[in-house]
Amino acid sequence: MITKKKNQLKDIQITSEFWNQYRELIVKEVLPYQWEVMNDSADISITHEPGGNEEHQEHSHAIQNLEIAAGLKEGAHNGYTFQDTDVYKWLEAAAYSLTYHPDKELRKITDRLIDLIAQAQEDDGYLVSFFQIEAPDRKFARLKQSHELYTMGHYIEAAVAYFEVTGNQKALSIAVKMADCMLKHFGPGADQIPGYDGHPEIELALARLYELTEESNYLDLAHFFIDQRGQDDFFDRQIAADGLDRDVIDGMRNFPLSYYQAAEPVRQQETAEGHAVRVVYLCAGMAQVARLTGDKSLLETCRRFWNNIVHQKMYITGGIGSTNIGESFTGNYDLPNDTMYGETCASVGMVFFAREMLKLETKGEYADVLEKQLFNGIISGISLDGTHFFYVNPLQADPDISAHNPSRNHVLTHRAEWFGCACCPSNVARLIASVDQYIYAVKEDVILSHQFISNQATFENGVTIQQESNFPWEGTINYKVENTSDESCILGIRIPQWSQKNARLSINGEMQDYQLNDGFIYLEAVPGTTSIELLLDMSIKKYQSNTNVVYNFGKVAIQRGPLVYCLEEADQEKSVWKYSLASDEPLDYRFESELLGGLGVIYAAAKTPEEEKEPSLYHEYIPKKWKDAKIKLIPYYAWANREEGNMAVWLDQEKN
Amino acid sequence: MITKKKNQLKDIQITSEFWNQYRELIVKEVLPYQWEVMNDSADISITHEPGGNEEHQEHSHAIQNLEIAAGLKEGAHNGYTFQDTDVYKWLEAAAYSLTYHPDKELRKITDRLIDLIAQAQEDDGYLVSFFQIEAPDRKFARLKQSHELYTMGHYIEAAVAYFEVTGNQKALSIAVKMADCMLKHFGPGADQIPGYDGHPEIELALARLYELTEESNYLDLAHFFIDQRGQDDFFDRQIAADGLDRDVIDGMRNFPLSYYQAAEPVRQQETAEGHAVRVVYLCAGMAQVARLTGDKSLLETCRRFWNNIVHQKMYITGGIGSTNIGESFTGNYDLPNDTMYGETCASVGMVFFAREMLKLETKGEYADVLEKQLFNGIISGISLDGTHFFYVNPLQADPDISAHNPSRNHVLTHRAEWFGCACCPSNVARLIASVDQYIYAVKEDVILSHQFISNQATFENGVTIQQESNFPWEGTINYKVENTSDESCILGIRIPQWSQKNARLSINGEMQDYQLNDGFIYLEAVPGTTSIELLLDMSIKKYQSNTNVVYNFGKVAIQRGPLVYCLEEADQEKSVWKYSLASDEPLDYRFESELLGGLGVIYAAAKTPEEEKEPSLYHEYIPKKWKDAKIKLIPYYAWANREEGNMAVWLDQEKN
């Protein structure tokens, strides 16, 4: 039984200009565009995974698949077994958008969509259009590849959101029926399936449904899925029974069990291995279940995964997944910039994981990573016009190389209109539309303000917080805390890792000393009004990698506030790798309101070799004649919104 | 009708200590070892291509396949459709070895092998054991994948060599029957196949057979194969007729036509594309046919391919093929050091191509590249013990990364005992065993001495040349030319590109000025004895890449004479990338007779960061505290003969 904490967040409005631009984009461009795409009425070109096994269909078919399953149309299923999830993630994004932008027309569409989904659902609660249309006798028979629980999990997530926003009971009933269908089919019972889905997701979805409904069976089933994972040869037994050659997704059968985080029980796994999105979805679910059940060893497992990912396997932009092969993690410190993956969905999943860890433990690092993802790895996944998307988010790219080198042609240098496997576009949409849920964490007696996204928030205990800033461009953060109760309240404010050497705090106009407690400072908000001003360190910083990262040795990356910067060919005279950052010259920040919708750029002094005739591919070294040059860096998230060109995050520094 | 040039090479003995070590290794270790492996009597572990489609058989089966085809055994074929070629390339290597190391026991084995091959051959001349055993109704029906002409081509090459060395007529007759079989089946006639093999090789083999037999039909057929390539949809038509899903090598059907150099006629191809070994085998055949037919446009095509490969697509070690995916070329200047291929066979093929171009045109560059391959990319393919082999020859490697990153796990950091696709081991063996054929090129009235491999050679015109040196360790090359005729003879000596700024020549003890003519100096060897001393520039040189090579920008490679050097972890205290070469300190060469069988190493001053605690993956840049270090470089060919570790050819230079 969950009882609402008395200081629970009651209402929040985002006032951040930076984020409201994105949130308006979701309403005005992203949702209508994606709806059209899923209804096959947009004139777009679909980008397919190079060398992938997907059928190269020219449309999404996602809505049509549901219509066929509902008996409203006839025809074959098209797309992946999890094609329905595009619709559900879109629905979830739409639900969040209704909180800040109520829209009757959209509400009509989404209510009708709920009706369609209800019609498509079978009486026993099952709903995966692929299996209903193409293989009704093979339901839950091949979970290594089928994505059935993954697919229904995404509906459950959407339904929880949609119910919470609109009160639509039908939406929730569908989810409850799905969960009940799973309760019937999965578990340790004699007639039940003792297994789990190849793609984790259902764990966090069931935990979410439990938090809404307080039906403990859902939490228990999530717990069961986590515990059962990797215990035995469940996948192989199922496939042997279903028929070895009857793959539902070509090529996946031979992926190693580690790809599925099923090589051994999760509590025994020392490192994050396999498909990065699966890992972080699983971690988010594990953290949620650990919190809700008090399962200490599961929390320990979450910490172990977190540490391995964050301290050994994460790009400075937050990207995770060092290889496109299996969209997977590789070894510790193996962070190639040009052959990497860094899937947008993996950054989204990492945000889920970070938020859940922050609910478990008050540790600044969780919020630091959450911020890193929000301001870099996630919004790099969507173009500034809202209709083009990155699946892969590289730290080094070149159009010619991507065009001609198959080890690198998964790296696009332009965002795509849509993908054959279109998991990322709606994922980034639902994250941006719900960014208000990633600003505060509420503990027993503490309100943690861990992200600098201007907002006005009201809490159940009568406290309202107004946070104002021009972040991420400026570092002055003003809080106005109104405590209408007669008790003091503790407010924890995160000092980001990048500002910990130099942050200034004043309360009611008076400068304050403060102590950092694992990344947070704690203040007492007495009854009445408290004004807090935080000055974050917005100096431009150079970062370097651990020397174990071969790819970045001797290189630096530029960061200002939370934003990682990159060098894009569009702003330079030459290819980006031909510049070496001058060692001791100051870096110059300017906000350019005309550029790319308005953003802060960094000008830097650099050296570049004088143009010389280079007759041969190799020639005897002579110290280059370097000339002075000026380079211009833009925030990483904004690259690839102009003409195609090369790009790099890690830069050489001036040499002798 | 070919007439022997009067100054043709009559006899040659290698006296080079460096090469004789390798050639003795061929006799004492390589040939016996490979014979055992092919007879499935060696206790070895076979390395399979990661992610490849090959069946993971545990033995070679190569001899057994022939025995089954010959009716001496029963059973299934094992291995690739071209498994027979392992035997043929071994036979060719054995043939060459008999020229410098006559061995009755070996001769018995090879003669018996010829008997076996004769028994396996069908009456009409066809011999590809896979199709005879597994698919006798599908001969020549699927040439895009079948490798049938490739396979018989390798036999023809072996037979020409074996006949030339031993006079074994039966060996030659088998080859003639094979060629006649092809003449019957292939050509423009109504009942003939208007196509060619997916893997070029037969072109050069038929040209070789023509040069031996003077049967012009063979040359014409080679010419036909070249002209026909890429003209139409031959491959697709064949596959449609044979059955789309009846692949003989999984996965190859969907490779693009450019992989097969069949996207358009070769004379229209502007760049070298696709599978690198196929490209250079095709080029060698084209150059040979161009020379033998006087086909000028074919020569122009060869020049175009040469220039694209050598000036845009070749590693400094001679390696070619920038990606493992399709073992292929990628774009111009795209030369990644860690995800590359650089197949040993491609270097072997490039040597064939270079030799043929040198026969066509007296241009030092052809011999420079030939030398680069011989001393680097080829001998790196075989261990110093003769029983371990590289398929892939990277310029940067790390065992941990290869183990955990599937974009890099084709890069071994130890040589393998054998491969599932074992093309390289016998290819490197036949090249080393025949290195005496790559030292002189004889033109109408000129003897070109283009490689510095000590030897004693006798020419048809009565000239003998004794070349003595301790190359590649020392650069003093002494020639003693005895001209027993009464006419002067012109001797062309190549000055390697790396020595062109600083080479000294004396004739009969007197220093001489000389002019370089496209890489060669020309001397008159008057009747009697002429002593020539050439002093090559053996200073240690740093090389840099063209600035268009993103991967090497700001880095240098070390070369001394023809040998490219590398930094191997076994010789350093830390991982190799943690060193930056000191900019201005001298590099120190020493011959170390105890190390790795004796070789010249280079000691260099370097800087390395002081060991510091690095708690996080990324941290704010502070100029590193560099300390002085000494690094030791070894010749590239000798790496991976000790404990496994990381290795790099391109090195950072000291930074501010």
Report the sheet-strand fraction of chain A.
15-25%
Which radius of gyration of chain A do the C-alpha atoms yield? Answer: 25 Å
Question: What distance lies between the first and last C-alpha atoms of chain A, to the nearest angstrom?
Answer: 67 Å
Number of helices of chain A: 17
Q: Could you say which overall geometry of chain A the principal axes of the C-alpha atoms support?
A: globular
Low-confidence segments of chain A, given as residue ranges, are none
Bin the helical content of chain A: 25-40%
Q: Name the strands of the widest sheet of chain A in spatial order.
A: 1-7-8-9-14-11-12
Which oligomeric state applies? homodimer
Name the pair of protein chains with the most residues at their interface, and give those residue counts: A-B, 62 and 63 residues
Largest sheet of chain A: 7 strands, antiparallel
What's the number of extended β-strand segments of chain A? Answer: 24
Structural class of chain A: alpha+beta
Q: Average the pLDDT over all residues of chain A and give the rounded result.
A: 95
Domain Non-reducing end beta-L-arabinofuranosidase-like GH127 catalytic (chains A, B): 12-436
Protein name (chains A, B): Glycoside hydrolase family 127 protein
Domain Non-reducing end beta-L-arabinofuranosidase-like GH127 C-terminal (chains A, B): 541-651
Domain Non-reducing end beta-L-arabinofuranosidase-like GH127 middle (chains A, B): 447-538
